[in-house]
Write a structure and sequence with these properties.
With about 550 residues, the protein is of the alpha/beta class. It folds into 3 domains: about 10-90, no CATH class; about 100-170 and about 185-280 and about 405-545, FAD/NAD(P)-binding domain, CATH 3.50.50.60; about 300-395, no CATH class. The protein has helices spanning about 10-20, 65-70, 75-80, 120-130, 145-150, 160-175, 200-210, 265-270, 335-345, 365-385, 415-420, 440-445, 475-485, 485-505, 515-525, 530-535, and strands spanning about 25-30, 35, 40-45, 50-55, 105, 110-115, 135, 215-220, 225-230, 235-245, 245-250, 255-260, 275, 300-305, 345-355, 390-395, 405, 425-430, 450-455, 465, 465-470. Strands 5, 9, 10, 11 and 20 form a 5-stranded mixed β-sheet that branches. The chain has a 5-stranded parallel β-sheet with strand order 8-7-6-12-21. The protein has a 3-stranded antiparallel β-sheet with strand order 15-14-16, with helices on one face.
């Protein structure tokens, strides 16, 4: 069978479905130089005059239709959808095949994958330690959740280090609040959460990147594989493979940090991971489900509404909850008409709609969740439009939960509730348990005080050369529901970046790094100052012992 492969991946899959039977092999007479995949070109070896299976485009193995679709990570229904996973066809790519790489290999001290709330502080911290850093971001703009998902409302503490530097600049130059506070986030929150437009967050990030001479920011460079060496029962991550301008490129470094938020890189490196809810007995937790149901927290679609007519009045009646006021202090429904008019600026951040996604590792299912959320929000969009407002919808749906990479220590909900400060603590954390979709006693949920993040939770088991940062560190689902918020993820990221730089420059492994030296360095940076402050002010503690 002949087919023009200068078409989308989805079209090729549809062709296979229409022209092949289970267990049969589909052959093509020609192999073009470039196999077009939405937004990118996948480079393949050119061998004129020989026949090859379609599987030649994704692996050296021969495979039938069922195997091909399985490797793509899509089913029969999803395969016919346009815009299937951009890099699904190279799931089984062999990074040792040098013929695939058209761009020269890059070398640095530390690779950070993901320029989001955890990855940005990680890259900055490593760079300030003197390490040469390459920060990889799959999107065309850095920022992560605040830029892609409009999560510009930031809960939790501590607000220290690189994170507080960022939000202070945002508050001073870009705040949409009526009463910007110079003390914003000094130790926790000041009852004025403040918010900014997503573009403002990206602007601040670009400014930071420009100031840090040791960071090379590579946007539009999705990681498609990990470069791994296997010795005994352990893997060593020595770099990553990225897609740039339709060509593959290898980036090598002694230490790599997975700050993707999904744990994609760690999974490709062969790391063990947890997904979905745990059973209480799995980690001997005092609360939780009797039996795991495999569910993850729902996704949220956020958007911004903005007045377009001077006489437009915000249609408060259509919002029972989920819309925040200008200062992000109160829910709209908690205010009188008079109170609302005083703060009505005409621009609001909306929590939007929440929808379930059965597998947040699958881009097709995430895209479907996005579609369902948009459909759910249509009545709000229409009402706002009639009232004289325009809506700006986040480009991506917000994912609260994905893979949790199994580390040397699994942080449990009891660690959180008891306020355990581990001997190898590298970050402080403070936020309530917030497991959307799971019922937790409010008295327990809101009784969380400060607790520590152990360094061991950043080190994947049986893996060298790799650290995790942000919500994907090793912990149970209930524990993660507390530390998943941006200030905590940022602090973890800064600690991970510091550790990675120290290990790379000292030519030691992240596992053998002197934790006491790491802690002393983090303390010098002021990352533990918040906990020292709240402990000195016992009478002002906002939690119960």
């Amino acid at each position: 069978m002949n087919v023009n492969l200068e078409q989308s991946l989805a079209a090729v899959v549809r062709f296979i479905q229409d022209n092949s039977e289970e267990g049969t092999q589909l052959y093509f007479d020609e192999i073009p130089e470039n196999f077009y995949v939405p937004s990118v070109y996948f480079q393949i070896p050119y061998s004129a005059g020989r026949k090859a299976t379609l599987s030649s485009y994704c692996t050296t193995m021969t495979m039938n239709r069922r195997q091909f679709l399985k490797n793509m990570g899509i089913g029969a229904a999803g395969a016919a959808l346009p815009g299937v996973s951009m890099f699904a066809a190279i799931e089984a790519m062999n990074p040792q095949d040098k013929s695939l790489f058209k761009l020269p290999e890059l070398h640095c001290d530390v690779i950070v994958v993901g320029a989001g709330p955890a990855g940005i502080p990680a890259a900055v911290a490593a760079a300030r330690e003197g390490a040469k850093v390459i920060l990889l971001e799959e999107d065309m703009m850095p920022g992560g959740a605040p830029v892609d998902m409009y999560v510009t409302y930031m809960c939790g503490a501590p607000r220290v280090g690189v994170f507080i530097d960022m939000v202070r600049e945002l508050n001073q130059k870009h705040s949409l609040s009526i009463t910007p506070s110079s003390t914003f986030g000094q130790w926790a929150w000041d009852n004025k959460q403040h918010w900014w437009l997503p573009s403002s967050f990206a602007q601040v990030v670009y400014g930071i990147m420009k100031a840090e001479k040791n960071i090379t920011l590579m946007c539009g460079s999705p990681v498609v594989d990990a470069v791994v060496e296997t010795k005994g029962n352990r893997n060593r991550v020595t770099g990553v493979c990225v897609m740039r301008q339709g060509m593959l490129q290898k980036v090598s470094a002694p230490v790599t940090i997975d700050a993707t938020g999904t744990g994609l890189l760690a999974a490709k490196a062969g790391c063990e991971y947890f997904y979905g809810s745990d059973a209480r007995k799995d980690f001997n937790e005092s609360i939780g489900l009797e039996k795991s149901d495999g569910r993850v927290q729902p996704c949220t679609m956020m958007y911004i509404s903005q007045r377009t007519r001077s006489d437009a009045e915000f249609p408060r009646h259509i919002f029972k909850t989920g819309v925040l006021d200008h200062d992000q202090e109160k829910w709209v429904t908690q205010q009188t008409e008079e109170e609302f008019r005083k703060i009505d600026s005409g621009i609001y951040l909306h929590w939007g709609a929440t929808v379930e996604c059965t597998d947040t590792t699958d881009p097709v299912l995430v895209a479907d969740a996005h579609r369902r959320a948009m459909k759910k929000l249509e009545p709000q969009f229409e009402a706002l439009n009639r009232a004289g407002y325009v809506t700006h919808v986040a480009p991506k749906i917000g994912i609260r939960e994905c893979r949790r990479i199994k580390g040397e220590y699994v942080l449990t909900v009891d660690d959180v509730l008891k306020g355990v400060m581990h001997d190898d603590k590298i970050a402080d954390a403070w936020y309530s348990l917030d497991p959307w979709g799971m019922n937790v006693d409010p008295k327990i949920k809101n009784s969380v005080g400060p607790y520590g993040i152990p360094y061991r939770s950043l080190i994947p088991v049986n893996t060298e050369g790799l650290l995790t940062a942000g919500r994907i560190i090793s912990g149970t689902r209930l524990a993660m529901s507390s530390y998943r918020v941006q200030p905590i993820c940022a602090t973890i990221g800064e600690a991970a970046g510091t550790a990675a730089a120290m290990a790379a420059l000292q030519k030691t492994s992240v596992r053998n790094l002197d934790v006491r030296r790491l802690q002393n360095r983090l303390d010098e940076k002021g990352l533990f100052e918040w906990y020292r402050h709240v402990n000195m002010n016992v009478n002002n503690k906002p939690w119960k012992k």
